[in-house]
Known about the structure:
Elements: E1 4-13, E2 20-30, E3 35-40, H1 46-54, E4 61-66, E5 69-70, E6 81-84, H2 96-106, H3 111-125, H4 140-153, E7 158-162, H5 170-187, E8 190-195, H6 198-204, E9 207-212, E10 215-220, H7 222-227, H8 232-237, E11 244-252, E12 256-262, E13 270-276, E14 290-295, E15 300-301, E16 312-317, E17 320-323, E18 328-334, E19 337-343, E20 355-360, E21 366-368
Parallel strand pairs: 3-8, 3-9, 6-7, 7-8
Antiparallel strand pairs: 1-2, 1-4, 4-5, 9-10, 11-12, 11-14, 12-13, 14-21, 15-20, 16-20, 17-18, 18-19
Amino acid sequence: MASLGIHNIRKTYGDKAKGVEVLKGINLDIADGEFLILVGGSGCGKSTLLNMIAGLETVTEGEISINGKRVNELSPKDRDIAMVFQSYALYPSMSVRENIAFGLSLRKIAKAEQEATIARVAKLLQIEALLDRKPAQLSGGQRQRVAMGRALAREPQIFLFDEPLSNLDAKLRVEMRSEIKLLHKRLGITTVYVTHDQIEAMTLGDKIAVMKDGVVQQFGTPSQIYNRPLNTFVAGFMGSPPMNLIPATVVGTGANIALSFTVGAAAVSSFTLALTLDAASEGKLKLGQAVLLGLRPEHITDASRVEMHGAQQLSVPIEITEATGADTLLTTLLGGVKCLARLHPEALDSVTGQDVSVCIDASRAVLFDPMTGLSY
Length: 376
């Protein structure tokens, strides 16, 4: 096991002065045994960073260290890292047993030790019955287990996963996500996992680095990322559905801020919300200032789900409703934009007309500057 340091990492393709810079000064420190998620949209640089950790891409500037030792110049085989690819990268002509043993054979491990390792890994991943099959005879989930088994057989210091579940169907992704989480819990090996799926990021990671355009937008625990996003990109990217961003105006200042925003399509209909800011944010807002009010859909909900002190109630128009089984998602208009509320599945059964009463948990609100996108 090992700690991983990523310090001021930059990557430029082409001439350094005129080339394309895809990583722009990445700084991350991952403790021994932590599970780090690199998440972001296509082209954000997450896979490039993973390949640089693995030694498959060169570093233009900065330092990558494992257990405090610089590894920039080390070849992939000397970094003691195992990688699981999106495409599984199994040898089609080899059996499962031979695929798992391939790396061990290259390292001249004794045959008896190879067999013991294969048996241990196969038992851990529950693939004992598959050892004599070829990859073409396996399902997607089974191939993924074999790819993980080949990595596990190495007993590396660090695991690297490059979108390993993206080729699987939804049900299998959930199952394999649980397998990977349990595996990490048992082995405690430092892991870096790349994904574009924010649900994978929230459920798997000890720490999450949200990336956009080669820059880490926020680095923290899943709770910090979800509840206190540092900017509107993180607020909109993390969460399913994402955080509502409601245009509002400051109508009261001090320790208790008051915000006003329109409700529905009629500009004459408005609502004033009172909320308490933390000490660091006090004094940053002025009367008449425009802000974006960030509220998760579950913090705009019906009274039956409210167990919050100081919840504020308002009537909102019903635009669209979507029954998901466990919830009903209600689309309404707040601040002139479409917003989602997460209601009890039976909350609308007795509603007549076009309006419904909801409660807002102002204690969970996050305020953003509409010009910079940064949170207050």
